[in-house]
Protein backbone atom coordinates (compact mmCIF):
# COMPACT_ATOMS: atom_id res chain seq x y z
CA UNK A 1 0.00 0.00 0.00
CA UNK A 2 1.44 3.43 -0.91
CA UNK A 3 2.51 5.48 2.09
CA UNK A 4 0.10 8.34 1.39
CA UNK A 5 -2.84 5.94 0.98
CA UNK A 6 -1.92 4.12 4.17
CA UNK A 7 -1.69 7.40 6.09
CA UNK A 8 -5.12 8.44 4.80
CA UNK A 9 -6.61 5.14 5.90
CA UNK A 10 -4.98 5.52 9.32
CA UNK A 11 -6.65 8.90 9.67
CA UNK A 12 -10.11 7.55 8.96
CA UNK A 13 -9.53 4.56 11.23
CA UNK A 14 -9.94 1.95 8.50
CA UNK A 15 -6.57 0.27 8.89
CA UNK A 16 -4.64 -1.06 11.86
CA UNK A 17 -1.39 -2.78 11.01
CA UNK A 18 -1.14 -5.13 14.00
CA UNK A 19 2.18 -6.55 12.86
CA UNK A 20 3.92 -3.17 12.85
CA UNK A 21 2.31 -1.34 15.74
CA UNK A 22 2.22 -1.48 19.49
CA UNK A 23 -1.31 -1.89 20.76
CA UNK A 24 -3.13 0.15 23.41
CA UNK A 25 -6.36 -1.36 24.72
CA UNK A 26 -9.13 0.50 26.54
CA UNK A 27 -11.32 -1.86 28.55
CA UNK A 28 -15.11 -1.49 28.43
CA UNK A 29 -17.58 -3.11 30.82
CA UNK A 30 -21.25 -2.55 31.72
CA UNK A 31 -21.82 0.80 33.47
CA UNK A 32 -18.33 2.08 32.71
CA UNK A 33 -18.16 5.85 33.18
CA UNK A 34 -18.26 7.37 29.70
CA UNK A 35 -15.51 9.97 30.01
CA UNK A 36 -13.22 7.55 31.85
CA UNK A 37 -13.00 5.62 28.59
CA UNK A 38 -13.78 8.24 25.94
CA UNK A 39 -11.45 10.91 27.39
CA UNK A 40 -8.35 8.74 26.98
CA UNK A 41 -9.75 7.47 23.67
CA UNK A 42 -9.91 11.02 22.30
CA UNK A 43 -6.31 11.69 23.28
CA UNK A 44 -4.88 8.37 22.17
CA UNK A 45 -6.88 7.98 18.96
CA UNK A 46 -6.04 11.53 17.86
CA UNK A 47 -2.38 10.74 18.47
CA UNK A 48 -2.30 7.34 16.79
CA UNK A 49 -4.37 8.41 13.77
CA UNK A 50 -2.59 11.71 13.20
CA UNK A 51 0.91 10.38 13.84
CA UNK A 52 0.99 6.73 12.72
CA UNK A 53 4.75 6.96 12.34
CA UNK A 54 4.99 6.80 16.14
CA UNK A 55 4.02 3.15 15.86
CA UNK A 56 0.97 2.83 18.13
CA UNK A 57 -2.69 1.92 17.64
CA UNK A 58 -5.58 2.03 20.10
CA UNK A 59 -8.75 -0.04 20.31
CA UNK A 60 -11.53 -0.83 22.77
CA UNK A 61 -12.11 -4.24 24.34
CA UNK A 62 -15.10 -5.81 26.03
CA UNK A 63 -15.33 -9.27 27.54
CA UNK A 64 -17.31 -10.71 24.64
CA UNK A 65 -16.43 -8.12 21.98
CA UNK A 66 -19.96 -6.76 21.85
CA UNK A 67 -21.45 -3.34 22.61
CA UNK A 68 -21.32 -2.00 26.15
CA UNK A 69 -24.00 0.16 27.80
CA UNK A 70 -22.21 2.85 29.81
CA UNK A 71 -23.20 4.48 33.09
CA UNK A 72 -25.16 7.38 31.63
CA UNK A 73 -26.76 5.67 28.66
CA UNK A 74 -24.14 5.86 25.92
CA UNK A 75 -23.52 2.55 24.12
CA UNK A 76 -20.05 1.83 22.75
CA UNK A 77 -19.17 -0.97 20.36
CA UNK A 78 -15.92 -2.71 21.24
CA UNK A 79 -13.37 -3.57 18.57
CA UNK A 80 -12.23 -6.81 20.22
CA UNK A 81 -13.15 -9.36 22.85
CA UNK A 82 -10.72 -10.39 25.56
CA UNK A 83 -10.01 -13.56 23.59
CA UNK A 84 -9.35 -12.06 20.14
CA UNK A 85 -7.61 -8.82 21.14
CA UNK A 86 -4.06 -8.36 19.89
CA UNK A 87 -1.23 -8.50 22.44
CA UNK A 88 -1.35 -5.24 24.35
CA UNK A 89 1.57 -2.94 25.08
CA UNK A 90 -0.59 -0.63 27.22
CA UNK A 91 -3.85 -1.31 29.07
CA UNK A 92 -6.27 1.47 30.08
CA UNK A 93 -8.83 0.35 32.68
CA UNK A 94 -11.57 2.95 33.28
CA UNK A 95 -13.85 3.20 36.29
CA UNK A 96 -17.42 4.10 37.08
CA UNK A 97 -20.14 2.39 39.06
CA UNK A 98 -19.72 -0.70 36.93
CA UNK A 99 -16.23 -1.21 38.34
CA UNK A 100 -17.58 -2.21 41.76
CA UNK A 101 -18.96 -5.62 40.71
CA UNK A 102 -15.65 -6.39 39.02
CA UNK A 103 -13.85 -6.37 42.38
CA UNK A 104 -15.23 -9.88 42.90
CA UNK A 105 -15.33 -11.01 39.28
CA UNK A 106 -12.61 -13.58 38.62
CA UNK A 107 -12.96 -13.24 34.85
CA UNK A 108 -11.87 -9.60 34.94
CA UNK A 109 -9.38 -9.99 37.78
CA UNK A 110 -7.64 -12.93 36.12
CA UNK A 111 -7.56 -11.07 32.80
CA UNK A 112 -5.92 -8.07 34.51
CA UNK A 113 -3.35 -10.34 36.16
CA UNK A 114 -2.52 -11.95 32.81
CA UNK A 115 -2.11 -8.57 31.16
CA UNK A 116 0.19 -7.55 33.99
CA UNK A 117 2.63 -10.26 32.91
CA UNK A 118 2.77 -9.15 29.27
CA UNK A 119 1.85 -5.44 28.96
CA UNK A 120 4.55 -2.84 29.47
CA UNK A 121 2.26 -0.28 31.13
CA UNK A 122 -0.97 -0.82 33.05
CA UNK A 123 -3.01 2.37 33.47
CA UNK A 124 -6.32 3.13 35.13
CA UNK A 125 -8.82 5.97 35.38
CA UNK A 126 -10.99 6.70 38.41
CA UNK A 127 -12.15 3.52 40.17
CA UNK A 128 -10.34 1.36 37.66
CA UNK A 129 -7.57 1.47 40.25
CA UNK A 130 -9.87 -0.42 42.66
CA UNK A 131 -9.92 -3.29 40.19
CA UNK A 132 -6.15 -3.19 39.97
CA UNK A 133 -5.93 -3.24 43.77
CA UNK A 134 -8.32 -6.19 43.96
CA UNK A 135 -6.18 -8.01 41.40
CA UNK A 136 -3.06 -7.40 43.51
CA UNK A 137 -1.33 -4.99 41.13
CA UNK A 138 -0.98 -2.11 43.59
CA UNK A 139 0.53 -3.89 46.56
CA UNK A 140 3.06 -1.58 48.19
CA UNK A 141 2.76 0.98 45.40
CA UNK A 142 1.58 4.61 45.17
CA UNK A 143 -1.79 5.06 43.46
CA UNK A 144 -4.84 7.26 43.28
CA UNK A 145 -8.51 7.06 42.34
CA UNK A 146 -11.66 9.19 42.30
CA UNK A 147 -11.68 11.35 45.43
CA UNK A 148 -14.81 9.59 46.66
CA UNK A 149 -13.14 6.17 46.47
CA UNK A 150 -9.75 6.82 48.03
CA UNK A 151 -10.77 5.28 51.35
CA UNK A 152 -12.12 2.24 49.50
CA UNK A 153 -8.79 1.90 47.71
CA UNK A 154 -7.04 1.76 51.09
CA UNK A 155 -9.58 -0.79 52.37
CA UNK A 156 -9.02 -3.14 49.45
CA UNK A 157 -5.25 -3.15 49.99
CA UNK A 158 -3.85 -1.46 53.08
CA UNK A 159 -0.34 -1.52 51.59
CA UNK A 160 -1.25 0.96 48.84
CA UNK A 161 0.34 4.39 49.26
CA UNK A 162 -2.82 6.38 48.51
CA UNK A 163 -2.04 9.71 46.86
CA UNK A 164 -5.04 11.88 47.66
CA UNK A 165 -4.03 15.12 45.97
CA UNK A 166 -2.57 13.99 42.64
CA UNK A 167 -4.31 13.99 39.26
CA UNK A 168 -2.32 10.93 38.24
CA UNK A 169 0.43 8.82 39.73
CA UNK A 170 3.15 7.38 37.49
CA UNK A 171 4.92 4.47 39.15
CA UNK A 172 6.69 3.22 36.05
CA UNK A 173 4.81 0.21 34.76
CA UNK A 174 1.61 1.18 36.58
CA UNK A 175 -0.07 4.57 36.12
CA UNK A 176 -3.28 5.45 37.97
CA UNK A 177 -5.36 8.60 37.65
CA UNK A 178 -8.05 10.33 39.62
CA UNK A 179 -11.66 10.60 38.47
CA UNK A 180 -13.21 11.15 35.06
CA UNK A 181 -11.47 14.18 33.51
CA UNK A 182 -8.15 13.26 35.11
CA UNK A 183 -7.95 10.42 32.62
CA UNK A 184 -7.34 13.00 29.87
CA UNK A 185 -4.33 14.32 31.77
CA UNK A 186 -3.08 10.79 32.30
CA UNK A 187 -3.47 9.96 28.60
CA UNK A 188 -1.52 13.07 27.57
CA UNK A 189 1.18 12.09 30.06
CA UNK A 190 1.21 8.66 28.43
CA UNK A 191 1.74 10.22 25.00
CA UNK A 192 4.61 12.26 26.46
CA UNK A 193 6.19 9.09 27.85
CA UNK A 194 5.81 7.09 24.66
CA UNK A 195 6.40 9.74 22.00
CA UNK A 196 7.86 12.79 23.73
CA UNK A 197 6.64 16.02 25.28
CA UNK A 198 6.49 17.88 21.98
CA UNK A 199 4.18 15.23 20.53
CA UNK A 200 1.94 15.40 23.60
CA UNK A 201 1.73 19.17 23.18
CA UNK A 202 0.71 18.70 19.54
CA UNK A 203 -2.04 16.33 20.63
CA UNK A 204 -3.23 18.65 23.39
CA UNK A 205 -3.45 21.51 20.92
CA UNK A 206 -5.10 19.32 18.32
CA UNK A 207 -7.95 18.35 20.63
CA UNK A 208 -7.99 21.91 22.04
CA UNK A 209 -7.63 20.73 25.60
CA UNK A 210 -7.22 23.96 27.57
CA UNK A 211 -9.50 23.54 30.59
CA UNK A 212 -10.87 26.76 32.04
CA UNK A 213 -13.85 25.76 34.20
CA UNK A 214 -16.55 28.45 34.20
CA UNK A 215 -17.49 27.75 37.84
Account of the protein in words:
The chain has a single domain (12-205), classed as Class I glutamine amidotransferase (GATase) domain (Rossmann fold, 3-Layer(aba) Sandwich). A hairpin with a 3-residue loop joins strand 10 and strand 11. The chain starts with a helix and ends in a 9-residue tail after the last helix. The chain has helices spanning 3-11, 34-50, 99-102, 106-118, 128-134, 150-156, 182-195, 197-206; strands at residues 22-27, 56-62, 67-69, 75-77, 80-81, 90-93, 121-125, 142-143, 161-162, 168-170, 174-177. The chain is α/β, with parallel strands linked by helices. The strands form three sheets. A seven-stranded mixed sheet has the order 5-2-1-6-7-11-10, with helices on both faces. Residues 1-16 have low confidence and may be disordered. It contains eight helices and eleven strands. Helix 7 crosses helix 8 (197-206).
Regarding CATH, which class?
Alpha Beta
Give the fraction of residues assigned to helices. Answer: 25-40%
Radius of gyration, CA atoms, in whole angstroms: 17 Å
Report strand %.
Answer: 15-25%
Question: For this structure, what is the CATH homologous superfamily?
Answer: Class I glutamine amidotransferase (GATase) domain
Amino acid sequence: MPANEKTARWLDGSVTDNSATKQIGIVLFPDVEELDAVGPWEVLSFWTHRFPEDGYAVSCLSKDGGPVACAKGLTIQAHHSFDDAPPLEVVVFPGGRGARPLLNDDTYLDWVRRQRTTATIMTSVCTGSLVYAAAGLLKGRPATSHWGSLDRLAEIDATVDVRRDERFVDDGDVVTSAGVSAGIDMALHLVARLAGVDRAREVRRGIQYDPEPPV
